[in-house]
Here is the input.
Amino acid sequence: MPASSHYHAGMEAWIDSHCHLDFPELDAGRETMVQQARADGMSHLLIPGVAVAHFARQQAVARQYGFHCAYGLHPWHAHEKDDLTRLEDWLQQPECVAVGECGLDKLRGPPLERQIPLLEAQLELARQRALPVVLHGVKAHEALLRLLRRQPLPAGGVIHAFQGSAELARRYLALGLDLGIGAAFTRPHARRWQSVLAGLPGERLLLETDAPALRPAWVTTGPNRPDYLPAIAEALADLRQQPLADLLRQTRQTTLNRFPRLREQHGS
Ligand SMILES: [Zn+2]
Ligand SMILES: [Zn+2]
Here is the structure.
């Protein structure tokens, strides 16, 4: 199911709101996938940060294509102390539109007790700088919701790769967080998630690939890619019984509202 077969010049523009385009898994195909994605209507792409050691490379890739970045310390990489001071400098770079990704992950990385202070510090940075936050939450939603209630985010944020019950979605939405939706719903065993997703408010959803991770079910080899997003969006529109153009327009608008600095050009 090649994405390009469904799309043509003049189609609705879209944004990949979470793509690790700087990761080495995408080195070989990067140029081709960016070209294809642009030919298929991609207007913006947001590269989330994971660790200070990756930021320079992330910035180089973003500048090469005129894309944007979030800078943050991923819970899997919760280590050195001076990282927070260095993160502060990176948040002032012109391509930076958000803090993240940061969050809590019970399945990977150091124990939650080590992840929590790192997240708290980043939520505080986001508050001070009035930046939105890209959040990663896996099997730690109660702890994450508790922190978000204690440290409200003036510029809001996104729970990326969200997957959960309608009730969990409602609690995040009530705190002003939007939901990033990737290809997890395309898997045949994701029936429950599909039925929740069909009922979520379209104006609170963002589209993302999370490439190179989380490829759609119909792709059996190779990394996930940003140019797979139109086909993922088409599957989502089908699931939600919503016209594709409508879904693309709505999610693009939500993404631009959530990350206002995406609208600003920065030097390439
Ligand atoms: Zn993540
Ligand atoms: Zn990610």
Notes: Residues 101, 136, 160-161 surround zinc ion (ligand 1) (CB under 6 Å). The chain has nine helices and eight strands.
